[in-house]
């Protein structure tokens, strides 16, 4: 027990890094994903195709590869090439990657709304942006909560990929102690930490689902 | 005609792919008239109604609402719609009630009614709530003001939909088979509300299968078949002595 208390400070520090990557990614990738979804369903074929290609690229290659590319290869790309420090590079990869997944969730949600809702709004004089903001998107939120919950929980665990940029997240902190002390206990403690984080998320999403169930 | 028509539709043509659904439909609707549009399914009656409020576009013809041109066709046969802002303003003179209600499920009854006046007309909540409550009393659903649509029966939903349309103060109301999705015992309450509107001289175009309603409430009956208006006469005459053989056959099946 004393040993567990001893290793808590470095593991908590790692959890801090994990939570930062998690929170910043979520806050940035959800609006970006929504924007991508709206562009993807737009009637301008060129825009829609471009977004489609972007989503294919982001979902079709490993997140780890994208992170390595942004950190190591992006500086050498002509014109747009910039050298990012490790943390911003990791965030950028996560946001670009997760926005693609969120875009598809939003798109599925928007397409699941009955055409009658658009017509009902249209004959009342709503413009398309008003229809989206006031009528469609509020209903979309409720429908996409289950897949969003899934994706968010995946994100918690995906944050451990940042170890490739030598950042001290929860898992890397645990592995460091394992190698130093020849004990596997830090892995168990780290697992408990991940479980607690996903438990909080699961609970939060259940609360949201209950809240939105009032109009069923 | 001395009085300006509320709706003037001239020679409307529309096709879905190769299928012609409107083959030159013309109709004038005067102020305070209640027009019942009847006919077999696939006759183009719903499409005709949807074209009037721009839920569908036509391929040829002219539509004027209270003297303003929604769409016209030039000598070369090309259709010209008004600019978007004008379309929205012109169609704003009309309200529409759908077969499947199309209430907003995430909003309460009252919110359903005040949403459009607030968002579209920019009215304040305080301005519109008294009107909305009066409308709810009118359709007999004031006690349901804070309930979500999922808790209502079909007939109640449709009455909320009518109140929602009225909240935008339209000059004309279009009804697209308003009772077709209802259990028979629930159609009465909706028809009663519509009858009250007719008595207040609301201009209405009603696509319906309710022959009793058409006979008792409509001022004129339009019988459509195969994308054409086959017969168009005052309601009493229409039901007493239908002229066209196609009309007679249809009525014999319905009554």
TrEMBL record, chain A:
Under Pfam families, the record lists:
BPD_transp_1 (PF00528)
> Which Gene3D superfamilies does the protein's record reference?
MetI-like
Location in or out of the cell:
Cell inner membrane; Cell membrane
Q: Which is one Gene Ontology cellular component term of this protein? A: ATP-binding cassette (ABC) transporter complex
Task: Cite the ABC transmembrane type-1 domain residue spans from the record.
Answer: 15-205
Q: Does the keyword Transferase apply?
A: no
Q: Main subcellular localization, coarse class? A: membrane
Q: Which GO terms describe its molecular function?
A: transmembrane transporter activity
Query: What is the membrane topology noted in the UniProt record heading this document?
Result: Multi-pass membrane protein
Annotated membrane-spanning segments are: 20-42, 63-81, 87-106, 187-206
Q: Name one GO biological process term.
A: amino acid transport
- Source species, domain of life: Bacteria
PROSITE patterns reported for this sequence: ABC_TM1
User: Which UniProt keywords are listed?
Assistant: Amino-acid transport, Cell membrane, Membrane, Transmembrane, Transmembrane helix, Transport
Q: Note whether Membrane occurs among the keywords.
A: yes
- What InterPro entries does this protein's entry cite? AA_ABC_transptr_permease_3TM, ArtM/GltK/GlnP/TcyL/YhdX-like, MetI-like, MetI-like_sf
Please name the PANTHER family in this protein's record: L-CYSTINE TRANSPORT SYSTEM PERMEASE PROTEIN TCYL (PTHR30614:SF0), MEMBRANE COMPONENT OF AMINO ACID ABC TRANSPORTER (PTHR30614)
Q: What does this protein do?
A: Part of the ABC transporter complex GltIJKL involved in glutamate and aspartate uptake. Probably responsible for the translocation of the substrate across the membrane.
**Quaternary structure (record):** The complex is composed of two ATP-binding proteins (GltL), two transmembrane proteins (GltJ and GltK) and a solute-binding protein (GltI).
Against NCBIfam families, the record matches this protein to: HEQRo_perm_3TM
Give the protein family: Belongs to the binding-protein-dependent transport system permease family. HisMQ subfamily.
Q: What is this protein called?
A: Glutamate/aspartate import permease protein GltK
Q: What is the lineage of its organism?
A: Bacteria, Pseudomonadati, Pseudomonadota, Betaproteobacteria, Neisseriales
From TrEMBL, chain B:
Q: Which residues form the ABC transporter domain?
A: 7-251
Alphabetized SMART domains for the sequence: AAA (SM00382)
GO terms (molecular function) for this protein are: ABC-type amino acid transporter activity; ATP binding; ATP hydrolysis activity
Which keywords, in A-to-Z order, does the entry hold? ATP-binding, Cell membrane, Membrane, Nucleotide-binding, Transport
Spell out the InterPro entries in the cross-references: AAA+_ATPase, ABC_ATPase_HisP-typ, ABC_transporter-like_ATP-bd, ABC_transporter-like_CS, MetN_ABC_transporter-like, P-loop_NTPase
Source taxon at top rank = Bacteria
Asked if the keyword Cell membrane belongs to this entry, the reply reads yes
Family to which the UniProt record says this protein belongs: Belongs to the ABC transporter superfamily.
Q: What is this protein called?
A: Amino acid ABC transporter ATP-binding protein, PAAT family
Q: Which organism is it from?
A: Formivibrio citricus
């Amino acid at each position: 027990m004393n040993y567990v208390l001893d290793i808590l400070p470095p593991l908590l520090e790692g959890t801090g890094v994990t939570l930062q990557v998690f929170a910043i990614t979520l806050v940035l990738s959800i609006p970006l994903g929504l924007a991508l979804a709206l562009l993807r369903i737009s009637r301008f074929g060129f825009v829609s195709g471009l977004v489609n290609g972007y989503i294919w690229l982001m979902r079709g290659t490993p997140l780890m590869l994208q992170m390595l590319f942004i950190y190591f290869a992006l500086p050498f790309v002509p014109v747009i090439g910039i050298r990012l420090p490790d943390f911003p590079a990791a965030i950028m990869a996560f946001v670009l990657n997760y926005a693609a997944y969120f875009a598809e969730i939003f798109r599925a949600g928007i397409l699941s709304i009955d055409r009658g809702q658009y017509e009902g709004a249209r004959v009342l004089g709503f413009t398309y942006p008003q229809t989206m903001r006031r009528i469609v998107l509020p209903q979309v939120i409720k429908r996409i909560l289950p897949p969003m919950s899934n994706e968010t929980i995946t994100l918690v665990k995906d944050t451990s990929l940042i170890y490739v940029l030598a950042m001290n997240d929860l898992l890397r902190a645990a592995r460091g102690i394992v190698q130093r002390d020849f004990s596997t206990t830090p892995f168990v403690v780290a697992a408990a930490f991940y479980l607690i984080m996903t438990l909080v998320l699961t609970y939060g999403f259940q609360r949201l689902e209950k809240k939105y169930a009032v109009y069923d | 005609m001395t009085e300006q028509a509320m709706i003037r539709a001239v020679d409307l043509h529309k096709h879905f792919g190769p299928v012609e659904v409107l083959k030159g439909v013309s109709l004038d609707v005067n102020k305070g008239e209640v027009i019942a549009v009847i006919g077999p399914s696939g006759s183009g009656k719903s499409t005709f109604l949807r074209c009037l409020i721009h839920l569908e576009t036509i391929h040829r013809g002219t539509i004027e609402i209270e003297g303003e041109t929604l769409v016209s066709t030039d000598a070369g046969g090309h259709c010209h719609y008004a600019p978007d802002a004008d379309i929205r303003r012109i169609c704003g003179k009309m309200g529409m009630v759908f077969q499947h209600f199309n209430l907003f499920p995430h909003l309460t009854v009252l919110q359903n009614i005040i949403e459009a006046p607030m968002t579209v007309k920019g009215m304040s909540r305080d301005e519109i709530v008294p009107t909305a409550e009066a409308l709810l009393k009118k359709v007999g659903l004031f006690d349901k003001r804070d309930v979500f649509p999922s808790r209502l029966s079909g007939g109640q939903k449709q009455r909320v939909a009518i109140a929602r349309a009225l909240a935008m103060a339209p000059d004309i109301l279009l009804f697209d088979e308003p009772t077709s999705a209802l259990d028979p015992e629930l159609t009465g309450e909706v028809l009663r509300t519509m009858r009250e509107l007719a008595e207040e001289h609301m201009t209405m175009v009603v696509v319906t299968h309710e022959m009793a309603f058409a006979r008792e409430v409509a001022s004129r009956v339009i019988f459509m078949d195969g994308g054409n208006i086959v017969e168009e006469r005052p309601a009493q005459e229409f039901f007493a002595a239908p002229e066209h053989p196609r009309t007679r056959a249809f009525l014999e099946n319905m009554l």
